[in-house]
Amino acid sequence: MEHLIAPSILSANFGNLQQDIEMLNRSEADWIHFDVMDGVFVPNISFGFPILKAVKPLTTKPIDVHLMIINPDSYIEEFAKAGASNITVHYEACTHLNRTIQAIKSAGCTAGVALNPHTPVNFLEDIITDLDLVLIMSVNPGFGGQKFIQNTYKKLYDLKELSRNRNPKLKIEVDGGISNENCKDLLQAGANVLVAGSSVFAAADPAQAIFQLKHP
Prior knowledge:
An eight-stranded parallel beta sheet has the order 1-8-7-6-5-4-3-2. The longest helix has 15 residues, at 152-166. By secondary structure, the chain is of the alpha/beta class. It has a single domain, classed as Aldolase class I (TIM Barrel). It has helices spanning 17-26, 49-55, 76-82, 97-106, 152-166, 183-189, 198-201, 206-214, and strands at residues 4-7, 32-37, 63-68, 86-90, 110-115, 133-137, 171-175, 193-196. The relative contact order is 0.17. It comes from Mucilaginibacter arboris. Belongs to the ribulose-phosphate 3-epimerase family.
């Protein structure tokens, strides 16, 4: 499976967001990663429906919505209507995860589950066949630019092994501290979707940074 690049617009220039979205359209980016934070589940607040509605008409790429919020079930339909292609919720935020996943699919989106750095992969054993995507957080969620957590490699190997026979088409996404230095190792460990924020938008040539992640 060819790997996908999903630049996180959390690191984009919100003073000129349209320009950055147009750059992503021209680039080899596959998705646009959209981080939603509520200041409760994670210690930061980002953006929500109004920004998603503004971005959707500007982009030619699917929008990968990552909900770092409590009670995600209450907002699934609205994010789907606003333009999400994929919606990922956190295992740690969902009391009835199977019901949440079915709600995402019923809203017309593909469904993902994110795991915080401390959450073991085997917690997904009973739901792995229902998922389109699993997002492994390689930093503690909430802020960009953090240091990559080395145990991520083991979690990717474990997830690849778990999905091998039961869900071989599973997209394995990794988010946090991704750069040219570690992207090849992450792909070898089992990732096939790379989320990159600061390493793209802080680069002198963001489109070239995306190209390098796409062709490590």
